[in-house]
Amino acid sequence: MADQTIWTIGTALPGLVGEWSSFSQPPQTSHDILLFNNAEMQILTASNRQLHLDWQKFILDELVKDRLVVVFLNMFELDEEANWHNFSFLPPQASHLAPYDGRDLQLSPHPVLKPFWEKMSPYLHCSCAFTQPLPIPFAKLKSTGQVAAGALKISRGTLVLLPEINWRHPHLFEAGEWSTEALSLGPWLQAYLRKASPHFKALK
Prior knowledge:
The chain is α/β, with parallel strands linked by helices. It has a single domain, classed as Rossmann fold, CATH 3.40.50. It is built from 3 helices and 14 strands. A hairpin with a 2-residue loop joins strand 11 (147-154) and strand 12 (157-165).
């Protein structure tokens, strides 16, 4: 479905320009697929609680419209005093997270994920895991069995939570510049999400 619009929040994908924004405020327009891509998530700390709430409302409103929301779970940061972390902007049923650091993932063989695992596995890193099960698990930690990636049906939409893509991997970022491989992966990821969107939405 090449006509689906994708809006990236956080960091623009390598090899692509436009159609992205920072976390300073939710976008004013609606899109078929929302992609939260690493990086600036860590600025959403307890000191900016209202921004978390604004993003949470935006995501929930988009899910009501049957959107696909994809979040790459990057570095986990916790404000223990406030009991607030940098993924507190996610819907409550998806925000039960704890820090982790590793790559020991047991990946789901589901057909919709096979192209993503094959293409992106060398660059995936698990920075956090869920402390409560997800209805549709995609990956688990081999060491503990905790879910590290998965999906939820919320209202009419689908929320997909995936391990971090390490865009600073030596094969992707060289001497301060994107490598040829990175510049090809950004467009590939967009194309994959457009093709996979109806299959993610059909998950139960």
